[in-house]
Amino acid sequence: MPTFTNSLWLNTVFPAKLMPETLLLFVRRFSSWHQIALAAMSILIFLLDAAPLEIQRRIVNGAVKGGDYRPILALSLIYIGLALTQGFIKLLMNIYRSWVGEKAVRSLRLTVQTLTSRMPLDRAGAEDVGIETSMMLAEADAIGGFVGVYTSEPLLQGGLLLTVAGYMVYIQPSMALVALVMITPQLIFVPLIQAAINRRVTMRIKTMRAVSGGIIWDDVDGQLPEELQGQRIDDIFSLNMGIFELKFSMNFLMNLLNQIGTASVLGIGGWFVVSGQTEVGTVVAFLSGLSRISEPWSELVNWFRDLTVTGAKYHLIASAIRDIDTHRVHLLARDHEQANAEAMIARFPGR
């Protein structure tokens, strides 16, 4: 099992004023060399992806035609070897991704902890404490986890999509149109639905922070109006249900189009086999390829969704860190002025 040491990564604690403003800048400043290494592993994986389809096609055609079984056995062993190679590279990449993500989570938590630990203990506002709690326990995990897949995931899934689609066009251009028809409508409704989800996610994050701050405020400074907290909790429920409805509706439409694509390949492919225009192995390879197109396309949609949602979360965290630092500087300056005034009074009590 691979191990990673701190020599590969500086344990970064960002000063508030130098906190990257966007998720992209954070990823670049935080893990640029690791992103390059992960990208190289992704390229190697998707370059190996079309070979099993061709081997599968040849095995089926060889079995249908009959004859010597030894070529089929050899192809089967090659198929297993490719699967093991690709799977092992994926294993290493997933562990590497997780390491990168966890280091990012750790750095974000240390950044927030370092900043808030310098706050005057008796002056820390309830809202700031609520923001810190939310970031430390929830939002840092989502952001750090996405750092690990920021570059490698779209490169891997996009490469798989193009590799398999190119292979399908090569062996049977007419049937490859089915894949294009399956994906095209998704290019229209997926961004529209995703934009609606993103708006609700941003509102939910802000509302959850308000609830966290309200709970601490209630414990420290007095009772917060119960109706206000209840309304915030109801708002979170409504936002979550709206997100679920949109997400599951999008999944339903995508799955429906995928099933239509499978039925179309079976119908068109069966007609081609009966009319002698293609082989059974080609149809089998197309069915397998169609599923391989559906999966990376779905993963790309998920990555796009996570990108926009995580970008919004990171923007809110970076803004909150700067706000906390500004509040801390203001409190320290005020305490310093108060201490100077008290010293002057003590020095010249009669004035």
TrEMBL record:
InterPro entries: ABC1_TM_dom, ABC1_TM_sf. Its main location: membrane. One of its GO terms (cellular component) is plasma membrane. Keywords: Membrane, Transmembrane, Transmembrane helix. Residues 36-308 form the ABC transmembrane type-1 domain. Gene3D superfamilies: ABC transporter type 1, transmembrane domain. It is found in: Cell membrane. It comes from Phyllobacterium trifolii. It is a multi-pass membrane protein. This is ABC-type multidrug transport system fused ATPase/permease subunit. GO terms for molecular function: ABC-type transporter activity; ATP binding. The keyword Transmembrane applies. The chain crosses the membrane at residues 33-51, 72-93, 175-197.
